[in-house]
Amino acid sequence: MPDFSSTRLWDVHAHPFLNRGAVTPDEFLRLTGFGGGWEPYFAEAGIEATPELGAEINEWKRNTTWHKLLVRELSNYFGCERSLDAVVAARNAAVASGYKDYVTALYEDAQLDGAVFDDGYPLPQVDMNAMQAEMGIRCAKIYRIEPLIVSLLKQDLGWSEFSKAYDDALNKALTEDGYVGVKSVIAYRTGLDVSPLSRTTDQGFVALDAIKRGTGGGAVKKLRDHLLCRALDICSEHGVPMQIHTGMGDYEVNLVLARPAYLMDLLRFPAYRMTTVILVHMGYPYQREAGYMAHVLPRVYCDMSEGVPFSGMGAAPILREILEMAPLHKVMYGSDAYTVPEGIYASAKIGKRIVTTVLGEMVADDVLTAAEAQDVGEMILNGTTKRIYNL
Ligand SMILES: [Zn+2]
C-alpha cells in the first residue's frame, strides 16, 4: 500500500489572510463556512440581519459535513473535546501565545510546505508581504484579472490606452511583482462560454467603444472574453499557468455557465494548445467534464480545491471520478481555504487522507502497483504544483 505519512504538501489554490486575533465560535463558523457571507446575501435583498436569522444560518453551517470534519481535525490537533466551542477556545489560546509560532506548528503538523494564493479575494487585497511575515510556509501568489478590469473601466481610457495598461499590469505582475501565474473568475461574471475568436484586438476595441456609448449588444461580455484571451496570450509568453474558476463557488456564481465543457472551444484553439491552464475546483459538480478535458487537452490540469474540503465526505468520491479520465499526474491538491489558518490545515489533513484512501483502493484493485500509487500521490500532493509553477 502507498504510504504518504512523510509526504510534504503544496496547496495549489488558497486565499490570503492575516492574524485576526481571537474569534467567537459564531465568527469562526462564519469565517470557515462555504458559499459567501449570509449578511450581504440578505442585505442585498433588503432583509434585516436579525439575531434570529443569524442563529438559523449558524445552525445550518454547523450541519455540513465540512464543518464536522473541520472540528474533527482541530480537536485531533489540540487534543480537546470534539466541539466547536472547545476547538475555538484552543485556537484562540494558541493565537494569543504567538500567532506565527502557532501557524508554523499547525502547518508543520499537516506537512505543508507552501500554498499558491489568489490575492483577488478578499478585497481590498491582503498585503502578501505582511502575510508571508506571519507564516512559516512559502506563500506564492497569482494575479487575478477581474479587479484590474474593474479599475481600468473606471478610468476614461481609449482602447489603445486601456489595452496597453492591461498588458503592462499583467507583464509587471509576472516580472517585477513576483506573481507566479494568473487567475480569472470570469465564470462569476459573464460565464465560460468564451469564443476563441474574441482574441482579435478588434473585438476589444468594439466592445469598449460600445460600453462607452451605452449601445449594449453584450459589450461587457465581449470585452471580458477578449481580456481573458489576452491573459492566456500573456501567460503563454511568460510560460506561466492560468487558473480559471470552474464549477461551484459563492452564491453569486453562475453555476450553469461555470461548466468546464464551455471552455473546450477556447482551450483547443490553436493559439492556446501550449498554454498551461488549471481548471480550478475541477469544475465540481462537473468534475467528470474537467477530468475528460485534462485527458484530451495536453496542457490542461485540474485541482481538487473546494471538492476538498467543502464537500466534506464527498471528497473521496470526487477524486475517484476525476481520476477516471484525468491523467494521474494532472490532478493537484488544493483547498480554496480562506480567512483563518485552520481551513488550509484541515483541508490538508483531509486531502492527504482521501488521496491515501483512493490510491490504496487502486492498488487493492490492481489498477496501480504500490510503487506507481506512491508516485501518483506524491505528484498530486506536491510534485505537479511545484513543477508547473516552478516552485
Ligand atoms: Zn478560490
User: How many domains make up the 3D coordinates?
Assistant: 1
Percent of residues in helices comes to 40-55%
Largest sheet: 8 strands, parallel
Termini separation comes to: 29 Å
Strand pairing plus helix content: what structural class?
alpha/beta
Shape: globular
Please give the structural blueprint.
Blueprint: E1 9-14, H1 25-32, H2 38-43, H3 51-62, H4 65-78, H5 84-96, H6 99-109, E2 112-118, H7 128-134, E3 138-144, H8 145-154, H9 159-175, E4 179-184, H10 186-189, H11 201-213, H12 219-238, E5 242-245, H13 264-267, E6 277-280, H14 287-296, E7 300-303, E8 305-306, H15 307-310, H16 315-325, E9 331-332, H17 341-364, H18 370-388
Parallel strand pairs: 1-2, 2-3, 3-4, 4-5, 5-6, 6-7, 7-9
Helix pairs in contact: 4-5, 4-17, 6-17, 8-9, 9-12, 11-12, 14-16, 16-17, 17-18
This protein binds zinc ion.
Zinc ion (ZN) binds at residues 13, 15, 118, 336.
